[in-house]
């Protein structure tokens, strides 16, 4: 299979490249730094700086995961514009290019996030649930999904992946938490009652591969483990995994002052459930947070 990836040099993209190279697929990554692609993603992976550089060769699937990190810095007007451009505008460029191709891929799997629902409070959220709050993250994910869905007009099957917090020790949000927790300075965020929909990296790439290979899969899928946890329970589990206390809370007021609108992303959450993935037959390898964290740190040792 010939697969084109955006966001291929990120945490999830690199893991997908390792998996699919092992399966014998032909991979191309559209990147701002195409010269670095073979080093980051694997020597056989081709990097291109422009979509036009792909050429007229066969293309079976597009995996659209590009997007600037959403929680790295406060949401100033400039930052919001970058977040929008790196997701919505980039996807628009991708669709324009696909429309001009004589041969189009069978499937577009496009990234999204559980932030599509907004802060869900205590509601259980499956893929049939409507958005709860129209905050910036929800608006961003909504526009991202609506843009990707236009590929259906080109005869392309579209899968939307609403991803939770991806657990990995070599990237993502967990890597940023490790140092304070290792120093015994970790703890819950705010009151710790907000729900955290999480997924182990192995299940994230496993689910993407599963949906790619199942021609009946289309529309939104929550990419999160079947057992979401509250933030306080997650902090306690991470403390146990690192054999450190996790008792120092990060006050919500401090976050609001320091991060502004972005603080809502950390102080809110979603009790998201992967109903459609389970109904389709995907078997999660990691369903309990303690087991997932133990496996991560065992593999990293």
TrEMBL record:
Domain DUF1731: 251-296
Name recorded for this polypeptide: TIGR01777 family protein
Domain of life: Bacteria
Family named by the database record: Belongs to the NAD(P)-dependent epimerase/dehydratase family. SDR39U1 subfamily.
Segments forming domain NAD-dependent epimerase/dehydratase: 3-222
InterPro entries attached to this UniProt entry: DUF1731, Epimerase_deHydtase, NAD(P)-bd_dom_sf, SDR39U1
């Amino acid at each position: 299979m010939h697969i084109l990836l955006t966001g291929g040099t990120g945490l999830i993209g690199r893991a997908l490249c390792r998996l699919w190279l092992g399966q014998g697929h032909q991979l191309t990554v559209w990147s701002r730094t195409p010269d670095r692609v073979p080093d980051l993603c694997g020597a056989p992976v081709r990097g291109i700086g422009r979509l036009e550089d792909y050429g007229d060769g066969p293309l079976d699937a597009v995996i659209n995961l590009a997007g600037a990190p959403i929680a790295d810095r406060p949401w100033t007007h400039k930052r919001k514009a970058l977040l929008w451009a790196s997701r919505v505008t980039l996807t628009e460029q991708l669709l324009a290019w696909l429309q001009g191709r004589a041969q189009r891929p069978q499937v577009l799997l496009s990234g999204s996030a559980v932030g599509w629902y907004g802060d869900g409070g205590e509601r259980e959220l499956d893929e049939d649930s409507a958005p709860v709050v129209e905050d910036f993250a929800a608006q961003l994910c909504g526009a991202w999904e609506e843009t990707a869905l236009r590929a259906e007009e080109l005869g392309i099957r579209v899968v939307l992946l609403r991803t939770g917090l991806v657990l990995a020790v070599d990237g993502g949000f967990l890597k940023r938490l490790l140092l304070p927790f290792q120093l015994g300075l970790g703890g819950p965020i705010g009151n710790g009652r907000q729900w955290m929909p999480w997924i182990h990296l192995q299940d994230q790439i496993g689910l993407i591969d599963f949906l790619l290979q199942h021609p009946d899969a289309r529309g939104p899928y929550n990419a999160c483990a079947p057992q979401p946890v509250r933030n306080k329970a997650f902090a306690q589990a991470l403390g146990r995994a690192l054999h450190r206390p996790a008792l120092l809370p990060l006050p919500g007021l401090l976050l609001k002052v320091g991060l502004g609108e972005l603080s809502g992303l950390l102080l809110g959450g979603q009790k998201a459930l992967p109903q459609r993935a389970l109904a389709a037959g995907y078997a999660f390898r990691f369903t309990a947070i303690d087991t997932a964290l133990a496996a991560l740190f065992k593999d990293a040792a």
